[in-house]
Amino acid sequence: MQARKKYILVTFLASWLLLFLLGGDRLRRFAFFSRTKAGARRSWPRWADRSLLKSFGDPEEPQSHGDPPPPSPRARRAARLSAYKGSRCRMETCFDLGRCQRHGFKVFTYPRERGEPVSESYGKILASIERSRYYTPRPEEACLFVLGIDTLDRDRLSGHYVPDVDEKIRGFPLWNGGRNHLVFNLYSGTWPNYTEELGFDVGQAMLAKASFYAESFRPGFDVSIPLFPRDHPQRGGQRGWLRRGAVPPKKKYLLAFKGKRYLTGIGSSTRNALHHIHNGKDIVSLTTCKHGKDWEKHKDTRCDKDNVDYEKFDYQELLHNSTFCIVPRGRRLGSFRFLEALQAACIPVLLSDGWELPFSEVIDWSKAAVVGSERLLLQIPSAVRCIHPERVLAFQQQTQFLWDAYFSSVDKIVHTTLEIIKDRLLPHRSRSRFLWNAPPGGLLALPDFSTHVGDFPFYYLQHGSSPSDKFTALVRAVSPLSQPLLRLVQAVSKSQYCAQILVLWNCEKPPPPTEKWPQIVVPLTVIEGGRKLSDRFFPYAAIRTDAVLSLDEHSSLSTSEVDFAFVVWRSFPERIVGFPASSHFWDAEQQRWGYTSRWTNELSIVLTAAAFYHRYYHSLFTGFLPAGLRELAGGLAACEDILMNVLVAAVTKLPPIKVAQRKQHKEAVPQQVKGTAATSGRGFSQQQDCLNQVADWFGYMPLVSSRLRLDPVLFKDQVSVLRKKYRHLERP
Amino acid sequence: MCASAKYNTRGPALIPRMKTKHRIYYITLFSIVLLGLIATGMFQFWPHSIESSNDWTVEKRSVHDVPVVKLPADSPIPERGDLSCRMHTCFDVYRCGFNPKNKIKVYIYSLKKYVDEYGTSVSNTISREYNELLTAISDSEFYTDDVNRACLFVPSIDVLNQNTLRIKETAQALAQLSRWDRGTNHLLFNMLPGGPPDYNTALDVPRDRALLAGGGFSTWTYRQGYDVSIPVYSPLSGEVDLPERGPGPRRYFILSSQMALHPEYRSELEALQAENGESVLVLDKCTNLSDGVPAVRKRCHNNQIFDYPQVLQEATFCVVLRGARLGQAVLSDVLQAGCVPVIIADSYILPFSEVLDWKRASVVIPEEKMPEMYSILQSVPQRQIEEMQRQARWFWEAYFRSMKAIALATLQIINDRIYPYAAISYEEWNDPPAVKWSSVSNPLFLPLIPPQSQGFTAIVLTYDRVESLFRVITEVSKVPSLSKLLVVWNNQNKNPPEDSLWPKIRVPLKVVRTAENKLSNRFFPYDEIETEAVLAIDDDIIMLTSDELQFGYEVWREFPDRLVGYPGRLHLWDHEMNKWKYESEWTNEVSMVLTGAAFYHKYFNYLYTYKMPGDIKNWVDAHMNCEDIAMNFLVANVTGKSVIKVTPRKKFKCPECTAIDGLSLDQTHMVERSECINKFASVFGTMPLKVVEHRADPVLYKDDFPEKLKSFPNIGSL
Prior knowledge:
Oligomer: heterodimer
Shape of chain A: globular
Structural class of chain A: alpha/beta
Subcellular location (chain A): Endoplasmic reticulum membrane
Helix content of chain B: 25-40%
EC number (chain A): 2.4.1.224
Organism (chain A): Anser brachyrhynchus
Strand order of the largest sheet of chain A: 13-12-11-14-19-15-20-21
Family (chain A): Belongs to the glycosyltransferase 47 family.
Number of helices of chain A: 22
Largest sheet of chain A: 8 strands, mixed
Strand content of chain B: 5-15%
Number of strands of chain B: 25
Function (chain A): Glycosyltransferase required for the biosynthesis of heparan-sulfate (HS). Transfers N-acetyl-alpha-D-glucosamine to the nascent HS chain (GlcNAcT-II activity). Appears to lack GlcNAcT I and GlcAT-II activities.
């Protein structure tokens, strides 16, 4: 004990001695002289007469009378039109908004030239436009034009290079100096400098170009798109690779790169330096000199050793097992590895100075990537090490969201480009930056529905609000006034949450007069609808509550059931919450999707014959899906149910929710829902056709299965019925 | 190294076990040595930070006493501004270096008076606003007085208003600054660019590579990612105190208050007024004011006099039209009044547009669409208008109200470019405090259903009930999706049983010994947890069936960001006592689940251990109670979501245990638990728990269906 005390004392003294020797001098100076010495030259002086200083200027416009009057705004606009062309184009000067006014935002694609095949990628781009809801085959109603000539590859040394584009486009009567045209390009310039040169005069056309250099990018006019490979899927697209959210990120490597090193020419300086940060442990940065035919001519001392190391690692393995991936510039600014890293949830560390990032107009890349500087490569390891684990997790999730929302297929890339341009036409009806950067993303949040974040079903938490506490019941009636319908209207109207009842009258006979309807406490309105099944999802202006209770005339629900389901919906406003359910499955024998509404342990579809959902889905159904798909839904049994469920699942990536219902009702449902076609004897061939066609349009199967049902907390428990709030659910 | 990454990967198991007495000695000794070294280092290597922050010597000097510099007529003039400049081409990042604080260092040149060869001064020495701006920079943490350590240089030559200076001579003055070097890393502040008759949209003073923080850029002069667009400061911001006015309907729908409007605009506005009557008000300068009334503070319409800027608070939308220049000081007044600006100035780069989302606070209308303004504004949803009003006021408070706010926002933007990985997020820039407070950003925001194959890790916290523990292990190991079992041995005085005594199970079983008997050990993010899903289970929970547990896991997969548990509990507001009350009766509602057996994401272990607000973690450890309530609070607060209670299970007590705790014990228990809720609610500053009326059951639960065909036939009872 004594020894320890002594030891402590000595250390104590030693440390103070050390302090005094090293810092004592400063300490003394600080203590005694700082007041007098430092003051005069340190911070910005407090001037004695600072309150007497004059203001920098008259806040109002200087309107001295001697000056000539300022130019007329109209004249200024006219002058601007002629002055800002070509490389100084902006929407105000080079785009004719007038073309978009009558027919809205419509896109026309030129017919493809005979004998001039387009590349696979360009074929996909054109197909995406033609699949989109903005496509028009008539040039006179078009607002935006897309060339039929393949302009993707403008590298003169490339096999896909199309010569004499200038002459061809000048021959097009619609070209008009490029006004209202959109030109796609993936590769510009050629060896050795890879400039932004396209080899023809774009004129006033907008450029949707990969590897955009910030300096030649015309802000608010051009669109920067990602470089995508030839085999990028047309639609749907692969999912991201993130399967788990781990904190701290448990990956083998912190930072990885594996790629070519250019020995000469543009882009070589960045890639030549990459080997410096390789530490063989958690940072793997590998380069090879092998590229091109004559690499050995330029070979340097590192090459051989590097080439050996290079072969030791697999690129895919690094992608999977690294937290950060270096995405340096290649010859051009963008590279395939950007999208590859994004998909792999490997956070891109960009080393590509001056690259206008893909869709930078709307995407906040600071949430998904580390934008490094080529000049500060050596700081990258310490910089990424300092990023908090929570932030890494957020980054990883954001890469997955962005990949899935905007990049995973050519359709998404092209549609995002179109939506960005469309948003510019009506700035006051465009998406805010928030909508673009929070799931489900800009393509699925339609500004035509609302520009207010709180009006959408998926932003309540971020917005700090909650859905309205009433619902609108929308009953679809196809036969003359029947007893079940009257009972249903009465039961629903008794719900304390019911705001109004709308009857969509889809019957040949005229709707009955007001006095025939039951006397109820909430307003009842009859809307005379068309005959189509998909009419039930039209965004009727009369629906003002956030929640819609969609009903068929045959559905039989009690007030308790409605109340409980609505309370559940308020917890899950982005999903469909309802009663009768069915499910999809992969039929391996027939190699197609199967559908069943038999009782199973899983469900993925909640029938809209009795379901709550957000009114936004009416707008999305009508505004997002192309007319062809909606017509399909009208023709096949239960197809509008399937389509609605698929659409909501595509938005939420989550299953619908089934809630408790009285038992005898459930048994009756399968027969009642869709008349005879759905009886079990004949299988569900129409539903299956529908399901497969819808999945084909989406390019994947969005439906997600759930194994649970939500019941009231005391449901069927052996406690007194009097305790239970929803006791009517218990009745046998 | 970064101070942030102090995440301890090993956990309490590795803390050396020492007797408390000795440890105190060691800790004291250690901290003294450490303190000594730190202090030495500070004085030795960081003299400036300490001295300059303490330097409050008041300088009693006049701005007119500063040194005079004579500029020869042939002194060099910088190149005109280079439109192609970007950060990576014209900015020298090497000057900024890497530092753990991620803050750039800004140097201010000392004030001088510049005169030409004939002794005529080049400009006004310094304006009040520019002096305020430099003072703000000097007081900020960006400031350095060491020119060699600076990353950014701010000249004291005042170029806020181009009309008060001589262009060529000012440029010459800039060029002779000691570190000018073609303007590299120099930042100029200008609010009123251009002059008659053309009114260029950027400062005309040749400035070579210098960055320009300018008010009134157009898209053609603004170098995106290089320049910073700033507001035109309105002196009324400092003079007039307009209390914030709550959102809601206001008297006028559209108001125009600018005086120097071009006649063409004015006639268009008046046409709008004629069309829409009272709801549109177009004001003009007053012509018949009595003497002594400042003209800037009054506006008139048909001889009716209005107070300015107070009248702005009477309008929902306020028009901000371009004048000769694009940037208008009225924008600041409009924002201050919480009026939604309607910006009609084609090609104008809005202030701080690099970071501020103006769509949330303003409506931008192309000049050509002015006649349609009324209908465009009518289409804005009412709720959105209210938010825009709040947002407008917030923008003013945060970024417009003073020269200081403008200066700091500008520096922060440049700072964010240089240290992008430490940049301030969109939400921090844009969300008003009220929104930051009420909104929730779920850290697990990606809708992702984890693959079933991943399974879950069960964590059993145990002290010495070995027999019961072994039963729990045996029971839990029957659950198909269990992938690992972790026993947290919380007893320091007793060793865990030998390896051979443990039950043999099909998955790996690991025992972690802890340094102290703390409840929080249950929620430590052990490295051994390799799955996302964690099942926390007490060492006496043996009544849960395998189906029940497996189903619980399946439910968690569908709600991976929530607590999924069995018995539910509720918090209630006790109106008599005016505080929260814990409720364990079998109610129709739940707001918490017990963590005696609950599934949750491993991430919440990380949060519980490292990010628990206030002293809750230690408080729980000291009181040996309520760790489950704390976890419920934490998860609900960070996700904004409710718990999921699964299956009818209402209690954990086995029938034979109920006899043990009597009624009185139960009551003290309830009081303690209620206290916990009140304590946590006060630390969190809110009540994050969400009350719901549902629980999750298997799809076919209690349905009339053959039991053997059900996935989870054996769901236990109450």
